[in-house]
Structure formats: structure tokens, C-alpha cells
Amino acid sequence: MLLSGCKEKKTMLFNGKNFDGWVLFADPYEKVSASEVFMISDGNIVVTGKPNGYMRTEKKYADYKLHAEWRWIGGATNSGLFQRIQDGDKIWPSVVEVQLQGGHAGDLLGMGGTALAKVDPFMPGIFYKNRTVEGDIENPVGEWNVADVEVTGTHVKVWVNGKLANEAEGVFTDGYIALQSEGGPIEFRNVYIVEK
């Protein structure tokens, strides 16, 4: 697990001031600018949740540990951390998503035809694996939560608030990292990686 006090060299993906190093993408059919979906307030990323979309890194990454903190605003809504998005920006990209939906943080989704090994399809093009940890691991609405994600080869492991929540095998060995807009407002902060 990636600890905030670890001595490994970390790279901040978000500088708290602007979206340098990021590509903002919102559903083009909604005719809403991505800059109206992803904003910065008090050094945090504020995501409206509507329309759907994501902000992804400009750079692709292979093996890494990702750390991100999030909190729901107003209610436990939906969002996600996308691991290794493949080229071609679209609303439902080829990616492994770490779910941040209320009551499901740590679930894993293989979207856009991205298979999760040994997991039956949830619906066409989507593979879903419920988190394996027992009990409520999420903090209440308005309080900060921590997600730590480790990807090595095709393996993905997820910790939520320090508890191992899930792991699975994907198919991609590199890609972009993204924060999702889906469902409702959410904030992110302290987003960084340690490359392996």
C-alpha cells in the first residue's frame, strides 16, 4: 500500500493551481465545455458529475502506485479512478475503473471491452468485480477518503481508507490515468503517483 509518508519518489499529478499535464473531456453531445465540469477551488479539483466525462493525464504510465483523496459533496454519488485508459477519448473508454460510487468504493469495472480475468461479463462490454472487503469502508459524505491503487503488469490492487478492497487482472500494461465525472459532485486532492 502507498502511504503518504513513504520515502519513494512521488510525482504530483495535480499541482493545485491549474490543469497542466491533463486533458479534460466531457460528453460532446451535451454541449457543455469540459472547463465547466472540472474546476479548481481552494487547491482541490471540483467535479460537477454532469455531464459524464473525465480528466486524464497527458502522459501514459505503465507500473505505478496511484494515491488520490476524494470526498462527496451533498450526497454519496458516483465517480471513479480510471487506470490505463487506451487512446481515443470517449465517454466509456477501454479502461479498468476503480469505482468511487457511494457504497461501492473499491469495486472494479472493466469497461469498453476491457476484460477482467476470471470475472464474468456484467453486461456486454463491461466486467464487474465487487470489492472483497467486509463492512463499510467509506467515510461519511463531506469527509475525505483515500484510494491507493497499485498496478503491476496487468494486475490491479485497490485500498480504500487503508483497507485492501479488491484486486483483479486486467489486460493493458500501460495507459492514461483519469478522474471521472459521473452522477454527482465530488472533489479530489493530493493526487500523485510513484512509478515502479
Q: Explain this structure to me?
A:
This protein has 196 residues and is mainly β. It has one domain (16-195): Sandwich (Jelly Rolls), CATH 2.60.120.560. Helices cover 0% and strands 45% of the residues. The protein is built from no helices and 16 strands. It has strands spanning 11-12, 22-26, 38-41, 44-47, 53-57, 64-72, 80-85, 95-99, 108-111, 121-123, 126-129, 145-152, 155-160, 163-169, 176-181, 186-195. Strands 1, 3, 4, 6, 12, 13, 14 and 16 form an eight-stranded antiparallel β-sheet that branches. An eight-stranded antiparallel β-sheet has the order 2-5-15-7-8-9-11-10, with no helix packed on it. A hairpin with a 2-residue loop joins strand 10 (121-123) and strand 11 (126-129). The two termini are 13 Å apart. 39% of the residues are buried. The mean pLDDT is 93.
Q: Outline, from the CA principal axes?
A: globular
Arithmetic mean of pLDDT:
93
Strand content: 35-45%
Biggest β-sheet description: 8 strands, antiparallel
* CATH fold description: Jelly Rolls
The appropriate CATH architecture is: Sandwich
Number of strands: 16
Gyration radius over CA = 15 Å
- Helices, by number, come to 0
Distance between the termini: 13 Å
Q: Which stretches are low in confidence, meaning pLDDT under 50 for 5 or more residues running?
A: none
Task: Give the helix proportion (percent range).
Answer: under 10%
Query: CATH superfamily assignment?
Result: Exo-inulinase, domain 1
Helix/strand/pairing category: mainly beta
- What's the SSE pattern? EEEEEEEEEEEEEEEE
Counting structural domains, the number is 1
CATH class value: Mainly Beta
